[in-house]
């Protein structure tokens, strides 16, 4: 009895459970690659935005003018949104005659909230990649175990077993493990790489917040010193 040992042939010959496992893993793989391309584009855009903003910010541009320029845009992201949130809160608190420490603390909290939102956005879909990388091999192994179990059950019903009889059943079962690894390996690599990139961006955002807070603190102190004493 001849068997089609191509991928499609082995898939069609597999049991329903093994076919279901294969289809599930293929779906996970397609979703993983979709999210990999999305996150790669988003993180690349975040790094580009950060470099462009830092060039403008550290070029000595007037903060009020820079704020007006950025706030006129729609959908601010990354370091630009952190700067705008902090400067807006700084101006509001300074107009309310808040103490210098209160102005700086309030400004830092506003930037911290905005940074947390940006990091949450950058980390979206990463939990899926982590889950796919963790469970896909086990799902594939389940399909393999189920397929080999059925193959040996079928062998028990014949008088004489040969390699030609057992090979197709084992091959179709092992495909499930192969697909599981195919889905897991890129997901794990992408998750580790993207997590490292997000961590670096978070550190850069945090460093900017500290430096910007120091600048605003000096401005607040200078403004307070210029006010006439009662």
User: What is the string of SSEs from the N terminus onward?
Assistant: HHHHHHH
Helix content: over 70%
N-C termini distance: 104 Å
State the domain count. Answer: 1
Q: Radius of gyration, Cα only, in angstroms?
A: 29 Å
Number of strands: 0
Described by the principal axes of the CA atoms, the overall outline is rod-shaped
Number of helical elements: 7
The average pLDDT score comes to 86
Which residues form runs of ≥5 with pLDDT under 50? none
Q: What oligomeric state is this?
A: single chain
Strand content: under 5%
Helix/sheet category: mainly alpha
Main pleated-sheet profile: none
Family: Belongs to the ExbB/TolQ family.
Function: Part of the Tol-Pal system, which plays a role in outer membrane invagination during cell division and is important for maintaining outer membrane integrity.
Subunit structure: The Tol-Pal system is composed of five core proteins: the inner membrane proteins TolA, TolQ and TolR, the periplasmic protein TolB and the outer membrane protein Pal. They form a network linking the inner and outer membranes and the peptidoglycan layer.
Domain MotA/TolQ/ExbB proton channel: 80-205
Polypeptide structure, described:
The chain is mainly α. The chain has one domain (7-223). The chain is 84% helix and 0% strand. The protein has seven helices and no strands. It has helices at 7-13, 16-57, 63-71, 78-95, 100-122, 126-155, 163-226. α1 crosses α7, α2 runs antiparallel to α6 (126-155) and α4 (78-95) runs parallel beside α7. One of its GO terms (cellular component) is plasma membrane. This is Tol-Pal system protein TolQ. The Tol-Pal system is composed of five core proteins: the inner membrane proteins TolA, TolQ and TolR, the periplasmic protein TolB and the outer membrane protein Pal. They form a network linking the inner and outer membranes and the peptidoglycan layer.
């Amino acid at each position: 009895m001849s068997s089609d040992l191509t991928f499609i042939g082995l898939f069609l010959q597999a049991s329903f459970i093994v076919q279901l496992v294969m289809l599930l893993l293929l779906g996970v793989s397609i979703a993983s690659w979709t999210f990999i391309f999305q996150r790669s584009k988003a993180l690349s855009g975040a790094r580009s935005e950060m470099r462009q903003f830092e060039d403008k910010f550290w070029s000595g541009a007037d903060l009020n003018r820079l704020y007006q320029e950025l706030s006129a845009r729609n959908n601010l992201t990354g370091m630009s949104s952190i700067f705008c949130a902090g400067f807006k809160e700084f101006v509001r608190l300074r107009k309310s005659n808040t103490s210098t420490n209160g102005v700086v603390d309030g400004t830092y909290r506003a930037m911290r909230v905005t940074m947390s939102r940006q990091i949450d956005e950058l980390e979206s879909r990463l939990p899926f990649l982590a889950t796919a990388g963790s469970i896909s091999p086990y799902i594939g192994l389940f399909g393999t175990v189920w397929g080999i179990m059925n193959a040996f059950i079928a062998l028990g019903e014949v008088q004489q077993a040969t390699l030609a009889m057992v090979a197709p059943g084992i091959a179709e079962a092992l495909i499930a493990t192969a697909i599981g690894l195919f889905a897991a390996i890129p997901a794990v690599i992408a998750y580790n790489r993207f997590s490292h990139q997000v961590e670096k961006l978070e550190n850069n955002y945090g460093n900017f917040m500290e430096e910007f807070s120091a600048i605003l603190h000096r401005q607040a102190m200078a403004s307070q010193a210029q006010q006439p004493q009662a």
